[in-house]
């Protein structure tokens, strides 16, 4: 049987039954996205690898608690997010990258994966200005409360819907909207202070 053709809910069910190949397929599907989320939160590759590994161990040990009426990805990201938040609370880190994938193996891949602030026809001066703006945004995001940072990263870097963020963070939808609104306001204030 080709496990790669199964949906997440079926894989989770078979993992509950102890099928090792189902566990391996879950790891294959979610290893990079989970690592990317954790890395963008804690900004240290080695620690992010440890936290991501811990997230999979925790998920596999608790696979029977997964409720198939919810998206498996939300359940998996919730575990990873909670561990990243716990890590952040233990260590005061000051930045979060918005410049692309933490697992980019080359400069070319990193460049392709960075968030583009203007179109590709930018001049060298605009490129430098936009890179500096990106660095300022990173520093400002690093000053946000962990829950605001999580909401902003999940929404604007990872591209999750408000409903998915609500599931991942285990807070009501209104709270997610409040976090994002307040985070944007704080970022605007912090960035205005830099420009002044």
Could you walk me through the main structural features you see in this protein, from its secondary elements to its overall organization?
This protein has 196 residues and is mainly alpha-helical. It is built from 9 helices and no strands.
What is the element layout, followed by pairings?
Layout (H helix, E strand, L loop, with lengths): L7 H9 L3 H23 L2 H17 L10 H19 L16 H7 L10 H19 L3 H12 L4 H8 L3 H23 L1
Helix pairs in contact: 1-2, 2-3, 2-4, 3-4, 4-8, 6-9, 7-9, 8-9
CATH fold annotation of the largest domain: Rna Polymerase Sigma Factor, Chain: A
What structural class should be given to the helix and strand makeup? Answer: mainly alpha
Radius of gyration: 18 Å
Beta-strand content estimate: under 5%
| Mean pLDDT over the full residue set | 81
In total, how many beta strands?
A: 0
Shape: elongated
Helical residue percent band: 55-70%
Order of helices and strands: HHHHHHHHH
Low-confidence stretches: 93-97, 99-119
The total of helices stands at 9
What characteristics describe this protein?
9 helices, mainly alpha, Rna Polymerase Sigma Factor, Chain: A, 196 residues, 2 domains
What's this, in brief?
The protein has 196 residues and is an all-alpha fold.
